[in-house]
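TICKET #2291
ISSUE: user wants both folds in one file
ATTACHMENT 1:
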Amino acid sequence: RAKTKAAYRLFEHKAVKMDTLLAAHYQSTMERIAREKIPVVLAVQDTTSFNYDTHAEMEGLGPINTHVDGAQGILMHGTMAYTTQGTAMGLVDVQVWARDPKQFGKSAKRYQRPIEQKESYKWLKSFQGAARLQRQLGSATTVVSVGDREADIYELFLLAQKDPFNPKLLVRAESDRRIQDTNMCLWQYMESQPLAGERLLRIPRRNGRAARDARLEIRFAQVELRAPKHKPTLGPLTVWAVYVTEVHAPSPKEAVEWMLLTTLEVNDFEGALEKIDWYKKRWGIEEYHRTIKSVCRIESRQLGDRTVWENCLAIDLVVAWRIEHIKKFSRESPQAPCTVAFDEKEWQALFVLRNPAQPRPSIAPSMHQMTRWTAELGGFLGGKNENPGSTTLGRGLQHLHDILIGVSLAEQLHSK
């Protein structure tokens, strides 16, 4: 009870804001990347919604779907830094807002408003967060901002190319834009390009569909896109396109088809494969959003005040990041020392719990071993070749925290 009241006092304090709570984490993200000397960082951005339709007391809610009288909640657009292997290195930017119901039904006037007054400006603002990270890291690291089809915004590409020191951009295209000085549009033009090669892609299980291998045909080319017809003054845009199509798909609905646009040069088949692999890492942020909801259970928080909720969300965001970081790092670098993600008291306490008759070792166990031990505290029963997921790992970290409290109490009793 005392700890709960202390948490409420922290969240309710007038000097405490979400950006303030996350500032130290943003700094740690940069320092972590710099310390590891990571050459390429993928700044993946995506939007998720938190449904509070059953929380009548929550203030400052808005529609979270296409109907003004539909589910009510709050939207979040986050940017997570990943290695090219898919390990989450930390958050770069977080935006939280609620839609104004009065703005619904005004889509016909969207072309008349500047980009800064639209919800889609979130993509540009996130890119600015990635640009801040790029300036901090310098030329030793290349930051690549990655987005799905919703990020196919002409102004975003113009922003990326405005400064040569800005991050690069990798986005899945949605608009079939005209190719400058031709009568062809993007899809038709890329279909006419020679086949560069094929590759197999493992499609993970999602939305009730089983995981499968997809055979992909790959084409790439440099393209000059014509400015949108309602914004002709923006001028043409030169980017590289990588077109991915699946052959012999189980059904047309399931067939993989990606049109990737990037400000990175793509000069050969290997370069095209690299951009495809980088875009695949975007799925990591969807797993992160599920962890916030299913493990941290942010949608179950009974907090009526919007500022209090945002401060609580800031803590949950960092907790969810740690879970995802440990989960993925233990898979990518299983033999690395666990001290990369666990402190000395954590691994020693868990080692003693697992091996009470053995002396404490001077060398820390591996990330693989420590991660499995932690997940087993949370109910992980997987075999030797199975990896723990976010749920059991999250529960295990909670139990590990309880164990450390017990160790601390034992030390205090022993000293008296």
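ATTACHMENT 2:
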Amino acid sequence: MLIRDILRELDLGSSVAEHDAALEDYFIETDVFAALVEDRRDTIAGDKGTGKTALYRILQKRYASLLSEVEVLPGFNPAGEPVFQRLVEGEPRSEGQYMTIWKAYFLSLVGNWVLQLNEGAFSHKMTELDELLKRTGLDSADDSASTIFSQVVNLFRRVTNPKSAELAATITADGLPVIAPRVELGDAQAQRELVRHDDALRLLNDVLNEVGYTVWVVLDRLDEAFQGFPQAEVPALRALLRTYLDLAEFDRLTLKLFVRKDLFRRIIGGGFVNLTHVNARKVEIVWDEEDLLDLLCRRFRENKEFMEALGVAEDTLNQELFNIVFPYQVDQGSRRPTTWNWMLARIRDGNGIAPPRNLIALVTKAQEAQLRKEQRGASEFTPGTQRGVIESDAIKRGLAALSTERVEDTLLAEAGEYATMIERFRDGRAEHNEESIAQTLEISVTEARGAIQALTEIGFLEQTGETFKVPMLYRGGLSITQGKAFASDEETESDEDET
């Protein structure tokens, strides 16, 4: 059978969960997913591309059959600009003020949802909740996350930036302000009304008890919302964590937080009171080599026609199946790594993170490169050889395309102020010491040490002994070649020194 025809039967799905229509077919119910649906964990932490959004999408689709008397409400907008970007507008606020915004948001989101669910059949407490939302300006005919959050932010903007002196309200950490006109009688002035957070949320919890529902509000895309705004990011998200802890008092309302591990570290940097309570309900998404291989081979097996064309049984071991699809080595030689190890070394960043997203993208791009070759001249698949249906050259071309993509959509897109520094490494060598980095960045060695720490934290550099290397994932996209920036051409090392 022609390799071209075999590869046309292979559909690995999208490496991005938001765009993967076949996600349910490929999804693996891991221990992390079990901990989530069994309500043993509230915070799901993982690096970019490790499957946080996939977990949310499957939870959203399956919760009705998996969870009894639990409603899962998306507290974010899955598509478009993250609605939480509204928090970076204007001057950064204090943690206490951000807490008021978060609590007002959850009160409004869940409160409007439950009232619309029971419209026309209000109990006494529902009527009380309805009146409270109207008094505080948190009622809404549209209970979508985007509408509610925008309404809350606009409300507090009007409170803190009145166009006239006729408003007697402000945003505090104590409660939800009720906007009222100012009335002056001599030296006396009308006092504004303040609804305490706990009282409002307790009323909401009572209403949920009446209807017999527990509500999980799921938050994702938090890293996207504050990209480039560190002054707002840390206080706003620390406030979110404190809000999460405060909501633990209420048995009918729970936050489920999907956060990147690096973002979580920034949030708790410098210490965080009651962090043990957060960590007790936190689980991290971890992918080891066996997990990644299993993920890829499961996607192969989902393509029945592809497996039949290869003449492979469904119960073939993962490594055997991999070795049928790919050559044994990308580069020949006794010191060269196997194709699997070659891939693993090239999909990871400087922090050693090798997300499934990169693996699926690499194989998909290699498949596309092989198909382009087969269109120029079709070749037959011969079972039992070490050639594979995706050849070495196609894998290398796939890596080049992946590197360019990740430099653009991940590295530079998320580097913020360090993007300019990264660009200075373009067209250079892969291995540096402190002096060569200082020279590259045109700064002193002392200043370079701070830059090295930052570039290492974001995964652009990895320390190997006394030197620092740009990971292979990013080299092609930045036209960085193998070798030492602080040595002559004759002293450069070969690719054999890296797996």
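RESOLUTION: both attachments delivered.
EXTRA DETAIL ON ATTACHMENT 2: The mean pLDDT is 88.
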